[in-house]
């Protein structure tokens, strides 16, 4: 039997993003009730969301076929507990919905 590692890695990185989205969802629902125009806060998304997305990408990239001989990933992201990936996922999910303003 062959063990497919990619579904486990994808679940481990996408689940914290969903948790971050769910943490921000109640406040987004309250903001949706207001009658204002929707805006997207690009500064917050670029300052917080893009770096956390890059940490998430660096945790998935070594398990893809494209990673062979491409570049090295910092060891702090690959070694030890997945705390950094979990925190980055929750932060990215929360920031994604927090950047939407009404």
Automatic annotation (TrEMBL):
The keyword Transmembrane helix applies. It comes from the Bacteria. The chain crosses the membrane at residues 6-25, 45-64, 76-97. Keywords: Membrane, Transmembrane, Transmembrane helix. This is Uncharacterized protein. The lineage of its organism: Bacteria, Bacillati, Bacillota, Bacilli, Bacillales.
């Amino acid at each position: 039997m062959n063990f497919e590692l990619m579904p486990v890695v994808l679940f481990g990185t996408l689940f914290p993003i969903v948790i971050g989205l769910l943490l921000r969802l109640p406040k987004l629902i309250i903001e949706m009730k207001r009658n204002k125009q929707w805006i997207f806060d690009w500064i917050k998304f670029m300052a917080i969301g893009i770096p956390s997305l890059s940490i998430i990408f660096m945790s998935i990239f070594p398990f893809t076929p494209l990673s062979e001989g491409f570049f090295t990933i910092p060891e702090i992201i690959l070694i030890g507990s997945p705390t950094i990936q979990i925190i980055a996922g929750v932060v990215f999910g929360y920031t994604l919905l927090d950047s939407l303003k009404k």
